Amino acid sequence: MTSRTSRTSLALAASAGACALALGAAAPALAAEGDDTAMVSVFHGVPGLTVDVYANGDELLGDFEPGTVTDPQSLDAGTYDIQLFEAGQGPDGTPAVEKEIEVPAGANATIAAHLSADGKPRLTAFVNDVSRVDAGTSRLTVRHVAAAPAVDVRAGGQPVFEGLENPKEDTTVVDAGTVPADVVLAGTDTVAIGPADLDLKEGTGTVVYAWGSAEDENLALATQTLGGMESAPNGVHAGGNGAAVASNSSDQWVAWAAAGGTAALAGALMVRRAAGRRG
Question: Where are the domains of the chain?
Answer without folding.
Answer: 4-278
